[in-house]
Automatic annotation (TrEMBL):
This is histidine kinase. Keywords: Coiled coil, Kinase, Phosphoprotein, Transferase, Two-component regulatory system. It comes from Roseiflexus castenholzii (strain DSM 13941 / HLO8). The keyword Kinase applies. GO terms for cellular component: membrane. The keyword Chloroplast does not apply. Residues 1-33 form the HAMP domain.
Length: 278
């Protein structure tokens, strides 16, 4: 009985199903490529600390040098780097997969900025770098996980301090987001900027600074114990809040790392139209 048969897909339906299938296959292939790239990156990053540890232990075993504190300290430092790498990778992969638990609450940005400043005051003093804050008065609260926001800001601050030479200045500016600063609409956002007077970043490198494991100068970055994941994590933390992160820089004129956060939506309250009803 022909009338009771399931309807047969016409050429248009078949074509659009094939298109959807191809798109799905392409995105799976892309995900698989990203996974392979991540594994290759991790393997590469693990190799250096492991070979330093192995080399030093081998030399100690072979009595190439006597058991001195310096050599043991080198090995210990490399194990610390490995621990940081593992912790950072966990954080980054959770954030990228959208599995980070955020305790969202209205957060006073000026308070977070003040706390971060306090955290870096000693380091700045030691390095003779001036820390400076400008918070626009009466900033509305943002809906955020205060610890995660502090973590993102601390990451930017720690980089800014590291790259700013003695006598330089690091400024944190918190204000309502403005189109001229950030490429997001002005509405309901707060923008936090960390501006330094360090060497800046060449234009060609700007699109890569947030890539995991990317460093302008591998050797120098390793010397300070960086994992190359700091900015990637900071960006993911901000993205998880519905914000954005970016950088503007001119070589020789310092760098400005910025991020935005959505303002806490105002609670909807019932307003009687006529005062006599209340
Ligand atoms: P790490 O600091 O561990 O190398 P990050 O992800 O924090 O990793 O930074 C990546 C790279 O971006 C750094 O190695 C450095 O080359 C560059 N960078 C970050 N912040 C600054 C800054 N304020 N000024 C100049 N270069 C920076």
């Amino acid at each position: 009985d022909l009338t009771r048969r399931a309807p047969v897909a016409g050429p248009v339906e078949v074509a659009s199903a094939a298109e959807a299938f191809n798109a799905m296959a392409a995105s799976l292939e892309e995900a698989e490529q990203a996974r392979r790239r991540l594994l290759a990156d991790i393997a590469h990053e693990l190799r250096t600390p492991l070979s330093v540890i192995q080399g030093n232990l081998r030399a100690l075993l072979d009595d190439v040098f006597p058991l001195e504190k310096d050599e043991i300290a080198t090995i210990y430092d490399e194990t610390l780097l490995l621990s940081r790498l593992v912790a950072d990778l966990r954080e980054l992969t959770l954030a990228e997969a959208g599995q980070l638990r955020l305790d969202l609450a209205p957060v006073d940005v000026a308070g977070v900025v003040a706390q971060s400043m306090a955290l870096f005051t000693a380091q700045a003093l030691e390095k003779q770098v001036t820390l400076h804050t400008e918070c626009e008065p009466d900033l509305p609260p943002v809906l955020a996980d205060a610890d995660r926001i502090a973590q993102a800001l601390n990451n930017l601050l720690s980089n800014a301090l590291r790259y700013t030479p003695e006598g330089g200045t690091v400024r944190i500016i918190a204000s309502r987001a403005r189109q001229s600063v950030c490429t997001v609409p002005e509405t309901d956002m707060i923008c936090i900027r960390v501006i330094d007077t360090g060497p800046g970043i060449p234009a060609a490198d700007l699109p890569r600074v947030f890539d995991r494991f990317w460093r302008a100068d591998r050797g120098r970055a390793r010397a300070h114990g960086g994992t190359g994941l700091g900015l990637a994590i900071a960006r993911q933390l901000v993205l998880a809040h519905g914000g954005a992160m970016g950088v503007e820089s001119e070589p020789g004129k310092g760098a400005c790392f910025w991020f935005t956060l959505p303002v806490t939506p105002a609670p909807v309250t019932f307003q009687p139209r006529d005062a006599s009803y209340s």
